[in-house]
Amino acid sequence: MPNTLEKTRKKILRKRGGVLDGLHQNSRDSQRLHTAQGRDERLEAIARSRRRRDKPIIARVTYFQEAVRQNDNKPLTLEAIQAKISEFVHQFDQEYETMKKARRAGRAPGPKEDMLKLRIATLQKEYQNGYYLPDLTNENNLQVLDRWDKSWTYLANLAWVKITTTGIVKPTLFPPQSN
């Protein structure tokens, strides 16, 4: 959490002898406090958008971390990895179908249904072109993945690959590039 406002407030309190009540609305100190508060709000908004952007990758890695743990932290075969990818890609299909059936005939789909359809299509297209995930065939990488604590910075220690539906495995770098 940004703390510019607290630092600025402490400096002003120290300068004014511990009294902050007597600030004039347009004084320099008041302007400094206002600027610091605006900066803190901007930094918090940036951090919030970054967390929202990183959330899908973290959810993906969490899913594959659990898949590896179910396999006793042993490397997975390409077929098993592709089965897990397919399972992950089609995790929203049932929810989409129930929403589609619940909708009355002739009605336009709702925004949630549209978002699910878009998410499913995006995941399927990514799987066609190369699904981005940690390398689950490398023993050392699995040990690092097992110790992962759901932090974004720790993900750079993992080896990453892209796997297509045809079984082509290409090593890649972290973070994912929007190509």
From TrEMBL:
Cellular component per GO, a single term: nucleus
InterPro entries for this protein: Tma16, Tma16_sf
Cleavable signal peptide: none
Family per record: Belongs to the TMA16 family.
PANTHER family per the UniProt record, alphabetical: TRANSLATION MACHINERY-ASSOCIATED PROTEIN 16 (PTHR13349)
Name under which the protein is recorded: Translation machinery-associated protein 16
Source organism (scientific name): Lasiosphaeria miniovina
